[in-house]
Description:
The chain has helices spanning 4-8, 50-55, 77-91, 112-127, 145-150, 237-242, 265-271, 295-301; strands at residues 18-21, 24-26, 33-35, 40-43, 96-100, 132-136, 154-156, 159-160, 165-167, 181-184, 190-193, 196-199, 201-205, 211-214, 249-257, 276-281, 285-292. The protein is of the alpha/beta class. The N and C termini lie far apart (42 Å).
Amino acid sequence: MIDSERCLALVETTPSLYKLVDGLYIYPGLPFAYLSELNALVMSDLHLGFEEAAAKGLEYSLRGRSGYAGVFLPRIQFRRTVEMLARAFKIRRPGRVIINGDLKHAFDRLLRQEKEEVSRLIDFIREGGVDEVTVVRGNHDNFVKRVLEERGVLIVDSIETSSGFLITHGHLDVDPSRYSHVVIGHEHPSIRCFGGKMPVFLRMPLTGGGELVVLPATGPYHPGTTFSLSREDYLSPLIRKYGVLEEASFVAWVETSYTGLALSEADISRHEKLIGLSEYRFDNSIVTLVHIENPVLLQALCEF
């Protein structure tokens, strides 16, 4: 069992959330969103059990071989997930956690690691004071329903809210025209920038109205899709059919050790002429959210 009190002590300060769109916020420095209408933390693409699948030589990449099959990887995904959740609960404890697909990794079976870690994750969330957990079915979430039902967790195809949000994993072709915002995972969006490949929250308008929000992956072994203007580079039919990639925007984050020095208001004002910067101080670190407004600016700053 994970020591929830130890994990919850990882952060001692309480920064605010970052507004991504009306009603949807980012937990600074974490791949999680907060949907205020449902008082819910929303996360995606944990891929629990990935390390066992890799060790067994099981290959489930939708893009061909991933390069991990037959490789023994440190089992860090579950530990990293609960550490991030503990940090998120310290920032803003939700009343509900929504896992927006790909809770587990194997398509065609339930691996022992998957069963154990899914159960432990649900227990950890509840020990943290969150009563309601919902799983939105992803394309990897086969054979897990019974484990979830034993823990009293509902698995659904999607979640709609009265204010016009649709939460769906992103692998299915759904009509987005009835919604103001569609929140998906599935793509594990990232950019090549600032010396490496970075996960991002990706936003873009949809043809016919509304907006798409793509969450970064929770699992650290899944850097995912690097942003491109080519529709063919994406997995989700929602992007391939409806996404206006030319008007996309991006929110990444950089975390540095706290040294007592930070960007001054003058520094932030100067840099915000090019990119949006928001700074959040934690116990011993500074998280800077970097908002890049469009692909033209992204191309000027980064690779793509």
